[in-house]
Amino acid sequence: MRIMDSVKLPEIIQGGMGVAVSNWTLARAVASAGQLGVVSSTGIDTVFIRRLQDGDPGRHMRLALDHFPLPEISERILKKYFREEGRAEGEPYKCAPMGSVEGSREWEELLMAANFAEVFLAKLGHARSVGINLLEKIQIPTLPSLYGAVLAGVDYVLMGAGIPRAIPGVLDRLSSGAEALLKLDVKGASENILSRFNPSRYFPDHLPELKRPRFLGIITSHVLAQTLATKADGYVDGFVVEGPTAGGHNAPPRGALLLDDKGEPIYGPRDEPDIAKIRDLGRPFWMAGSYGTPEGLALAKDMGAAGVQVGTAFAFCNESGMRPDAKSSIIESCRKGISRVFTDVRASPTGFPFKVFDLEGTMSEESEYKERRRVCDLGYLRHVFKKEDGSLGYRCPAEPVDAYVRKGGDIADTEGRKCLCNGLLATIGLGQKRKSGDEKPIVTVGDRVAETIQAIAGERSSYSAADVINHIRAKVCGQPKAEKQEQAASTATILHDARC
Ligand SMILES: Cc1cc2nc3c(=O)[nH]c(=O)nc-3n(C[C@H](O)[C@H](O)[C@H](O)COP(=O)(O)O)c2cc1C
Fold this sequence. Notes:
The chain has 21 helices and 15 strands. The chain has helices at about 25-30, 45-55, 60-65, 70-80, 105-120, 140-150, 165-175, 220-230, 275-280, 295-300, 310-315, 325-335, 365-370, 400-405, 410-415, 420-425, 450-455, 465-470, 475, 480-490, 495-500, and strands at about 10-15, 35-40, 130-135, 155-160, 180-185, 185, 195, 215-220, 240, 285-290, 305-310, 340-345, 355, 385, 390-395. The strands form four sheets. The chain has an eight-stranded parallel β-sheet with strand order 1-11-10-9-8-4-3-2. A three-stranded mixed β-sheet has the order 6-14-15, with no helix packed on it. The chain is globular. About 50% of the residues are buried. The chain binds flavin mononucleotide (FMN). Flavin mononucleotide (FMN) binds next to strand 3, strand 11 and helix 11.
C-alpha cells in the first residue's frame, strides 16, 4: 500500500473552480505561498483560444505553446486562433470544434495544448506542487486533457461530480505512455462505449518520461470513499470530503429529493459522511465546504484530516480569473452583509444542485434568464445517447427546447436549465458576443460567502490569495508566512523564470 506519508502534504488545497476562476495565476500564487494551487481543466480549451483571440496580452499562452513538446501542434493552434490585434469591437469569438465520442484530432490537440499551458504556467517560477481539477460528468475531453496536464508535470489530479473509478488507472497508463481507455456514460447503450487516447500517436518514436500525478477523489460520503479505495482501477492517493455548503455543484441529497419552502434541497443526517470510516482507510483527506476559516482548519485537523480544500474565499481574491467588476460588487455587497445564495436544483444541465449568487445583470435574474435566446455552441455538458439507428447523439437540457425534444429528450428536463458553459465563460470576461445579446455571467459561491469575505477583507475592497492563506492559517502559524513566500516568488518575473 502506498501512503503519502513521505510527502509533505498541503494544509490548504485551493479548490479547482471552473471555468478558469481557478486559473494559472491563482494556482501559481497559492503554490508560491506554499499550499496546493489547482487549475480548472473544465472548458479550458475554449478559454485558451479566447485568450489567443484577444491578442494574448502578457504573451503567456504563446510562452506555454513555445514549451509544448509538439511544436507542429503549437503552430497549427496559433495559425488558427491567435489575433495579434485582438478581436474587433463586438466581434464574436471563433469556437473550438465540439467534442464527440469519435473525437477529432484537431480537438484532441487543442485539449492537450490548453491543459498543458494552464499547468505549465501555474508551475512557473517555483518548485511547489500544482494540481488540476476535472469533473467526472464531463467525460469526452478527459483523456487528452489529462495527458496535456501530465506532459506539463502536474502533481495532483482531483476529480469529483461522479465516481471517478477509472481515473487512477488512466493516470498509471498515460504517465507510462500506454493507451488509456475510459468507459463513457451513454444513455440507452447496452455495450461499453469507450473513449481512447494513445500517447504514441503523438510520440511515435520516443515517448517522453512522465511522472504519475497523485489522484485525489472528491467525495461526499464514506461509502464513496470506500468504493474508490477498494474498487478503483489503480491507487487513490487521498480524498477531498465535500459537504453541501460548498460552492459550485453539490451532490444531491440521498434518497428522495425534498425541497424546503424556498425551493432548496433539504440535506439531513444521512448526507453526513462518517469521518471515522474515511480516516480508517488510512489515506490523507481534506475537508471542504465552509472550512475556509481558522476554526475550519482546526476542526478538520481534529478530525484527522491533513487540511482543508477552499473555494469561495479564493474565488474573489485578486489573482482569480473572475471578472474584476463581479468580484468588487460581490465583495462590496458581502461586506454590507447583503448576500443571497440559492441552491438551484434546476439550473445545471448535469442534474446536480448548483449554487447561484444573486447578482444584478447575471443569469440569477429571472428577466436575464428569460431574455436569453437558447443556443448550444460549446456543448461540454451535453449528454450522449444512443439513437434508434445505433449511432450516437448529443443533447443538453439547456439547449433550444425544440432541438432537445426532437432528439428524444423529455421537455420537462429543459425547464429552468441554464447554459453554464456560456454563463461561466462570461463570468471570467470571456463571454460570447451575439446579435441576440451578449452572454451574461452566472456566479457560483458557497453558502457562507458573506461571513468568509467579511473575515478576510475586513475594511478592504480587495484581497490577495496570500491574505486568504494567512487568514486560514492564523491559528496554526500565528504569522503571515504565506505573504513573505509569495513576495519572494514574485520577485522573478514569469518571462525571466521561463528562460532560466
Ligand atoms: C466559483 C466556484 C466554482 C467551482 N467549480 C468547481 C469545479 O469546477 N469543480 C469542482 O470539483 N469543484 C468546484 N467548486 C468547489 C471548490 O473546488 C471547493 O471544493 C469548494 O468551493 C469548497 O467549499 P467553499 O466554497 O465553502 O470554500 C467550485 C467552487 C466555487 C466557489
